[in-house]
What does this fold into?
Amino acid sequence: MDDKPSRNQGSHNQNKKNEQLDKFRVKNTGKPLTTNQSLKISNDEEILTAGERGPGLLEDFHYFEKMTHFVKERIPERVVHARGYGAHGEFECYQSMKQFTKAGFLQEAGKKTSVFVRFSTVQGGKDSYDTARDLRCWGTKFYTEEGNYDLTTIAMPVLINQDPMKFPDVIHAYKAEPRTDFPTASGAHDNFWDYVANNPESLHMVLWIMSDRGILRSYRMMESWSINTYLLVNEQGTATFVRFVWKPVLGVHSLLQDEALKIGGLDPDFHRRDLREAIDRGAFPEYELGVQLIPLEDEFKYDFDILDPSKFWPEELIPVELIGKMTLNKNVDNEFAESEQAAFNPANVVPGIDFSNDPVLQGRLIAYQTAQYHRLGSANFQDLPINRPICPFHNNQRQGHMRYRIDVDQVNYHKNSIANNTPYTTPPEEGGYAHYPTKVEGHVIRKRSESFNDYYSQPRIFWNSLTPVEKQHTIDGLSYQVGSVKRDFVRQQVVDILVNVDKELANIIADNIGVNRPSGTNVPVSTSYPSLSQANTPKYAYTQKVGVLIGDGFNSNEVNNVLNTLERYGVFVVIISETLGTVTGTDGSELKVDETFLTSSPYLVDSLYVVGGSANNQRKFNADVTEFVHVAYRHYKPIGVATTGESFIQSSAGNNLAGVVFAANNANFGEDFVSAIAQMRFWNRK
It folds into this structure.
């Protein structure tokens, strides 16, 4: 049985970024209420009026300040990635990477660097829901001693477009239909699928989104790739192509489509809450940083273009070398000040990290800065506490909205003699940034390389690599989304393009959505890669959430032993009963109830421990337990059954009870149940 993974325990260590942020943290508890000018306030409930029933007065400066600030509290949300959540942490380098890069934070084993991470969805607005089927993104801000380095990644190794010129088009098509402004947080509409059918480069990423990868179980279980191709440059000036990937220590796990839709209504903050609760409990999320490296001379070695962001680099051909681990160990103190105001930009690099000719990367390098100017309202957004580097910064930029840095110099230009030409430039050999001198030649044209034009081989490889269960889930995702398209001809175009990936897949989808089966057949590719299937990911019981369905009169000794075993393996336990308060066992011992059947749901836990017991309304209690069991069983979740809970689940001709563990006559029940929890799903269940 898998034990819990390696993790940091106890309270987090203070890091340099949090030491800096402490200067800006303000605690208002226990302090007098004041205006922004520090004037103490005597009444904060009524406006100033001429008599008790008279009109309001213009001199009410306190009301004016309070209300005018309130109506301006909202800032423009991100055009994409609006809904997200962040946390602080630390990155530790495993080994020196000086052979490939001169980046300071990768020079020696054990080197630690403060980080801030923000996870997000793409399609939905800030107030949408976490579990939507969507692409998920991940920005990491490394606060290095050479300046901030922003590594932006997404939860798939491929992008939906090959050229930045098309990015506004795909996002316009993906977002809510402009006449109606719905659907929310979903691409299940005509515009998006019309775009997919008419832009074949998009099909690859869409298949990933329609697979289990599009509905993650947790941000803690999210794999994420840089997509774009960068350069690492060492002290000798030698460059190497690189793509980055984050590997979650807990493995990569997903929800079922039905669960994702239900949870979206039950708990729109499911992923945000999951991340925050894990950190609060000291179960710090961990991710290993990997690199895939290709020497410059091997640029044309592969049967795909390594600069094409719509193509993945197969791990089986280009191995992932793990170079460090990030641990998220502190939650944000204020979501707006930290997560919402965090501004990422792939152009924020340090010496030793540079850019390739990847066309989408080239476009991204100019898009992010102006987006942050608009969203945060000022060119001075870099000086916000969350965005400020931990090392000093000096330049000749001045003024702008909300400038609170007080530059006391007379000189604000370069070159100068008054200040001895300071601030001064730094030569590359002393740490100044210099772009890698890539040789460039060619005519000025608007045209993409022909090597980008194989649109179907890699989607076919991805499909070949999925297990039968994963394929069925992808069929379900496609059938749901394309089946929501209203125009027959758009649905027909979708299956006509899907046939290039797999004929059987296209035929099934065509039958499901009521259009003609397509002519033609899939591309003749039989390659598959184990790394593309989630079936091969690590699995642990650690931090899985178990709902304990329990009433009064439980077997205290049996239940407490099981709960102690779950706690020993780091399983999160939620006690669920008829009412809040406590439930009492046979020996008088009590357990605190965390949730009721009304406030919880079988969709919100990963497995069940069915204890049963007595309740004031026994009929309703039994019905609620039975409903929880039926839903968990139908979704292939592990179920542990106490000796007092056997009446709630019994074998029959219609089920095989795969993944159901019984305590009766089983001295090893606790360990067996933990093993089942670690398995997570029992796809052979009937």
Confidence is low (pLDDT under 50) at residues 6-13. The longest strand covers residues 321-331.
